[in-house]
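Service request form, structural biology core

Requester: graduate student, group of Dr. S.
Request type: structure prediction, single chain
Budget code: on file
Notes: please return the result as structure tokens.

Sequence provided:
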Amino acid sequence: AQEDGLPQRNDLLTRLMEAKDENGERLSREELTGEALGQLIAGSDTTSNTLCALLYWCVKTPGVMEKLQKEIDDAVPEDVDIPSYDSIKELPYLHMVINETHRHHSTLSIGLPRLVPPGPVITLHSTPIPPSTTLSIPTYTLHHTPSIWGPTASKFDPSRWSPSRITEAQKAAFMPFGVGPRSCIGRNVAEMELAMVVAGVVRGFEFELRQEGVETREGFLRKMGGCRVGIRRRSK
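Core staff response, request fulfilled:
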């Protein structure tokens, strides 16, 4: 049955169809289409790109895949093929690996542009920045700055995210989704997707890297040129 013409489902599209503007009006068909496309494009291309980078660096970096598999194996019962989000959402090493992939690969490498609002001139490091200036922090550069991340800034090292090592300066410099009220609206969905896919794939399969080095294409997104691996199902 349907109520008020809306399907009785609990998904993102239903939430968009239920949404109302400041005048109490529901979104038009064009607005719904625009919102849905934004969710699909922003929430799929970026996630798949990050997953590609994560797989490459986990397989390439000695010890990372084995440690990740053990943590997931210990948390998920043997008779469960696809882990639930509740069973893996608090796994520390899984989230260290995801965070390190965000830092090391930085899918949104050039940062998001922001406009300086009206008001007095802002001065940063002796540089005056007047209102209406467009600013952007290059995320990749910020995530690889040795003065913040230390001499191993260029190394893929998930353990840098352990509570005993991560610093307040590093937490403040970590912005794969942007910061503030205009940060990525899909962050929670993206982080849930990444955790679910990584846990399910890593638990079920073993991987062997079939390429030397990796190429990236630079633009608004920093895209992996691909990740060629051999795959076989893990024996239980």
